[in-house]
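ok trying again, last paste got cut off:
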Amino acid sequence: MVKNLVAWYVKALIIFVLAYAFSPIDLIPDFIPILGILDDLVLLPILIFFIIKLIPKDVMAYCRALAKEHKFTNQKNWFFGILVIFLWAALIFWAVLFYVNRESLF
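nice, full thing came through this time. structure:
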């Protein structure tokens, strides 16, 4: 069920902030000392603050009530845990194998 509880420009701002947060492109490149990281540490919290202020209070209360009544299960998924461990072990094995056989490559 889709409800239009928030204005379109707030949704557009949310999409922009998420795209900026996950994008490798920054306003100030990260390789510039201090300023490169500082823009992420300052700009993102300010934008999130404005997004929260733009969402109507009744909508925020409604969403908080929905989240409070929802049953969250904290199930452990052993399959994906073992998969991640296997991938790390394979990567380490490949790196060691590459390091040991590097003389024969050159």
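cool. Residues 78-100 form the longest helix (23 residues). Residues 62 and 68 are 10 Å apart (CA to CA).
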